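Q: What would this chain look like folded?
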Amino acid sequence: MNSRERPAFLPAALVWAVAICSSIISSGGVNADEWPAWRGSGQRGFSPEKNLPAKWSQKGDNLLWKNDVGARSAPVAWDGRIYVLHLTGKEDTWQEEVVCLDGESGKILWRYAFNIFLTDIPSTRVGWSNPCVDPETGNVIVHGVQGVLVCLDKAGKKVWRHSLTEEFGRISGYGGRTHTPMVDEDRVVISFLNAAWGNQGRGSHRYLALNKLTGKVVWWSAPGGAPLDTTYSMPSVAVVDGVRLLVVGCADGNIYGLKSRTGEKVWTFRLSKRGLNASVVVHNGLAYACHSEESQFNTDPKQPVMGRVVCFRVSGSGDITKANEVWREDGLTAGYSSPAADDKYLYVGANSANIHCFDLKTGKEAWVHNVGTVLKASPVVGDGKLYVGEVSGHFSILQLGDKKASTLSREKFALEDGRPMEINGSACIARGKVYFCTSKHIYCIGKAGAGAGAAPFPWPVSELAAKDGAKASHLQILPAETVLRPGESRSFKAMLFDSSGRLIGECKPDWSTARLDAKVDAEGKLTAAKGRSFQGGMLAASYAGLKGAARVRVVPRLPLKIDFENSSLGPAPGGWISASPVKFKVVDLDGNKALKKLSDKPKFILARMYFGVPLQQGYTMQVDMMGTEEKFQLPDMGFFVSRYRFDLLGNSGRVRIVSWSPMPRIEKKIRFKWDPKVWYTAKMTVARSERKATIRAKVWKRGTAEPAGWTLEVEDSTPNQAGAPGLYAYSAGSTDKKIGGEIFYDNIIVTANK
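A: My prediction, written as structure tokens:
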């Protein structure tokens, strides 16, 4: 196993931890001197702690410690420890890494690093999302730019892990926007854009709830319309009229209320004509949201203004936009920074780095104060002060007042060449200290001797169990999604919930299957048929007029031999990830069937699809590929083995092996001109040891003898430890008015290495 992908422990003499009382207060609260999530214990960027620093300096005044762990995201704090997600290594050893530091001394307690792959996000955007800690277990959950969602225990050991891209078709943009996970009750909730298979074949912004102890899927929810952007707004928890809600800002520009335990949509509040990045603050039954694009329902439709801050009630159902609005402020562009709120005021960070203060109840603006030039970080508030950094390298502490704010401290950070040292992440407040990251360092500031002492912060509490005799309104199947091998079995449960999202209990429904060659017994045990077929279908359940379903993929074990002759013309085989009919189709080509990458929609000019599971073992993949030329444009065609890609690059006339192509971390290429409308056979193998991987690839015209030697060979000192087999396509030249080069795949063979 790669030592970089497991926790590295420092000598025991350096490890120091502070013992605290139970992490979950019996009243349903979280210690207010902890900061387990991006927006703090109260979900609104506010801490009730006192005696926080009013000033500090990089030369030592109130600087308690500094460490060379820079990040673009926010640190979080729990149980005397600080957690940071950031980029580590250099060039061919670049990885994303979770670092655990002692909150008192800044000493590193452990690290957990994982590779970057299958994404267009560059190195400057790695570590975009923020860690979160489950207060009950102390486990830390992080979401990487490549789609790794991993849960680690307090010692840095893996509890469970998902590859959201390979398992669920997560879509990666190039801007870095990655959602921050959050924990509510027994669930981890994460959202992302995805296009997978079946009823998730069409791209959408979906929310995924997982059991926080096992990582098993609890529910999926797709409340919105077509996504307009990649976004990073994080849900907030609220309890309204006994209903436990997640209040979520979505990629279609709307805000939704979802039942936290089931994912059912309760209401819609329409806000922006682009996706929402700023998280919604919920406080005392009111929601506060902001954005910086064109608004829906402009006061003057003929002269729309950009940006809005709005307050609305989170009660009701259906479309609550007009009925529930309390106040709004149009023309304020605050699209990246999430607002903070104490018990009287709302603090909104505009894109221009002006902090606007509004009365929570009336929306009356109290004052405006500038903290720099460009603001991406979200302000945090405590002890009558506001702490915030900005992109141009300034970190400010403001004294807050009813009529104005004043600057107590303003520190400037710069690189050696004089350029600003960016601050993109928020600060966190814990145990009398303030922690924040620049792109190069993490700082802890505070008064000497400051420590724990704040009272519990109430976390939204609601009844879990329904009352006796409650009427069921929702049927939930657990797990909500799973993968089986042919001949393998899995047991499912059916759970009933009332209209308020409270659990009634388990029931015994009538079970059935759809688009699955499988049998299910009366107890909910599903057994996939033996054979070599890929499948993607549903396990359905019905009970007292209610219906529920779970998504089931069946993926054969190695070896695989796929020639499409037994496939029907039309969609790709069942359960193939990100292979929707707008991207791929099985077609008849000169009397033989092959898989075709369509090139008539520029929106899908690039396609990555996966047909296996993230295999831990080394394997070899061989594929026949053919490309066509359109208007002097040749496509790029290739495939994935263990998250490495072998490309035949049409227009540049090269072949290459690459990992994390935007940088790239590993790349080797040579000239190789291939001809259009000619079939080529390509093969790649990855042989791994504990400390390195050797990747070899070759290509030759189909029907000719396979070359004895390899066309390309490269070693990776930071090897990928797993990966699903898949196909890659780029249809160069595809526009709204013309098609690009088409690509065909056939005779896919995947075998385990000996």
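Confidence is low (pLDDT under 50) at residues 1-27.
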